[in-house]
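User: quick one, sequence for these tokens?
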């Protein structure tokens, strides 16, 4: 089995790899065929199973960043709140730090470790399907730290812990990415808070001629770093709630002590990370916040055991539309039906508040909406070779929707946060079961472009049962 990293691929590419019908119009023209030796031709014609994995930072529990200061400082309690969104999670660490007198220095550095291993950028650009490959400082979003409700100095940094080889730092010996806060050195108990967002990790498997399978999204938490504190930590609790997902979607692996997991009436899951011996149940835990999906060669998508069809049978209007895309082709909301070209909002600014109105010709139960955001650097490689050589830079030049509000039939509204890549993403209505006639999508926030304020979409495909 061949394995690739995967952070973004045009829907057309996925359908072609799966052997689905109708992929050719979305792809760039292929070069003229050349005669090859029989042996080489046989190897190329043989179907290949492909396994792909997304790239996302994996956060851990906080650690002291300077052991010469840490002796005597205790982490008295840690409360971790996880808000599960559709394509990323928002985390809040609330740490009770007990700082004794006599600690040297004006500030005490405390860091959240991240396991993050993106592929080499040059090799990525040279691959047949370049992936979305973000630097660490852009892969962790909305990062901020505060002490006693006052914002403190913090930064996303790279490099090994300065005492990584110390026995007590074994849980983070291989870590080279951090969110570090500078805590003012004042004796007493203080509340340190970290906040940040990270996308989920997902696996994809491609069976030529059969299907594309996107695995369940996963959020992994490294729990063993909590043991780097002097005397351990008496209390470490996780609270998980579903801000954009159904509560029934959340799963935990390993399940730890099932008796310790409590579900409140509002759907908040609470459990202790520590066992009776004061140590974490496992070096890491994995939250599965939602379903995966399978796309077959006929354009059928299966989500949570229900099968629907990708449809382009709809009428669509936009609140505004840019005249032309960067390639000089007309922008139109109708381009979203087939992935041929793009739609971009046409107002001044970044397009927040602009809308798309969809009217289905064949109403039915809506299982989800498949979207591709931004301008893919592999759409027209023969016309834009510079974008092909520098795919991530090219993609970042144009705005992409970050969060959208979706209204069904004018009566049911839900929010969805998207990943910052050109991967096919499915937005799922959490609870709505009635047949859907109309869909309204409003851009609420964006990932800003570095070269223009225009915000682009490439595909909009309702999945109707």
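Assistant:
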């Amino acid at each position: 089995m061949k394995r690739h990293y995967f952070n973004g691929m045009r829907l057309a590419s996925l359908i072609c790899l799966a052997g689905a019908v109708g992929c050719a119009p979305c792809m760039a023209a292929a070069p003229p065929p050349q005669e090859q030796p029989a042996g080489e031709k046989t190897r190329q014609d043989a179907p290949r199973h492909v396994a792909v994995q997304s790239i996302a930072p994996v956060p851990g529990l906080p650690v002291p960043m300077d052991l010469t200061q840490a002796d005597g400082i205790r982490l008295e309690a840690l409360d971790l709140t996880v808000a599960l969104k559709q394509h990323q999670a928002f985390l809040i660490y609330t740490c009770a730090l007990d700082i004794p007198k006599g600690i040297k220095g004006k500030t005490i550095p405390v860091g959240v470790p991240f396991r993050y291993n993106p592929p080499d950028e040059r090799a990525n650009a040279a691959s047949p399907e370049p992936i979305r490959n973000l630097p660490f400082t852009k892969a962790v979003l909305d990062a901020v730290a505060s002490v006693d409700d006052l914002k403190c100095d913090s930064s996303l940094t790279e490099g090994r812990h300065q005492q990584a080889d110390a026995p007590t730092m074994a849980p983070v010996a291989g870590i080279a990415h951090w969110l570090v806060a500078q805590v003012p050195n004042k004796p007493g108990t203080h509340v340190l808070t970290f906040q940040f967002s990270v996308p989920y990790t997902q696996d994809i498997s491609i069976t030529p001629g059969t299907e594309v399978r996107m695995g369940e999204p996963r959020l992994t938490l490294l729990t063993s770093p909590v043991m780097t504190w002097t005397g351990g930590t008496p209390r470490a609790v996780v609270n998980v709630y579903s801000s954009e997902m159904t509560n029934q979607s959340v799963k935990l692996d390993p399940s730890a002590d099932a008796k310790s997991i409590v579900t409140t009436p509002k759907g908040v899951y609470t459990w202790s990370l520590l066992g009776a011996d004061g140590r974490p149940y496992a070096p890491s835990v994995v939250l599965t916040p939602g379903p995966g999906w399978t796309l077959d060669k006929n354009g059928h998508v299966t989500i949570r055991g229900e099968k629907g069809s990708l449809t382009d049978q709809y009428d669509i209007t936009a609140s505004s539309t840019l005249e032309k895309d960067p390639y000089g082709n007309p922008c139109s909301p109708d381009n979203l039906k087939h992935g041929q070209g793009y739609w971009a909002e046409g107002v001044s600014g970044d397009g927040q508040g602009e809308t798309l109105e969809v009217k289905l010709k064949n109403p039915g139960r809506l299982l989800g909406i498949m979207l591709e955001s931004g301008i893919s650097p592999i759409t027209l490689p023969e016309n834009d070779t510079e974008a092909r050589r520098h795919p991530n830079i090219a993609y970042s030049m144009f705005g992409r929707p970050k969060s959208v509000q979706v209204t069904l039939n004018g009566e049911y509204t839900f929010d969805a946060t998207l990943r910052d890549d050109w991967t096919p993403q499915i937005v799922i209505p959490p609870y709505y079961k009635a047949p859907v006639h109309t869909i309204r999508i409003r851009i609420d926030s964006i990932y800003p472009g570095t070269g223009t304020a225009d915000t682009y979409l490439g595909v909009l495909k309702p999945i109707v049962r």
